[in-house]
Task: inverse folding
């Protein structure tokens, strides 16, 4: 069953209750009860990119290897990005311009 957060308007107290949706509808008919909606605004995702990898690495209590953060997959590091730009600027031996 879902967890709902409520506010008692008389006492200004916030509390959580576990109940079914049908019970929620009955519970909200009380004049002094108001449902509080919470939004999770601190979670981000970049589809397992560098931010997600770094966050999971920081949360992991186990230290592996030398302890450095090493991104994996398609994540570009500064060195890789630099090398890619250098290669992109070089001309192919058959190009004249």
Result:
């Amino acid at each position: 069953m879902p967890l709902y957060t409520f506010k008692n308007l008389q006492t200004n107290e916030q509390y959580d209750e576990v109940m079914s949706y049908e019970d929620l509808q009955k519970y909200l008919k009380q004049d002094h009860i108001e449902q509080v909606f919470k939004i999770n605004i601190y979670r981000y995702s970049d589809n397992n990119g560098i931010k997600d990898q770094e966050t999971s690495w920081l949360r992991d209590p186990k230290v592996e290897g030398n302890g450095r953060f090493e991104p994996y997959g398609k994540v570009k590091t500064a060195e890789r990005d630099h090398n890619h730009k250098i290669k992109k600027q070089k001309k192919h031996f058959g190009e004249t311009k």
The helical segments are 21-27, 50-59, 78-89. The mean pLDDT is 79.
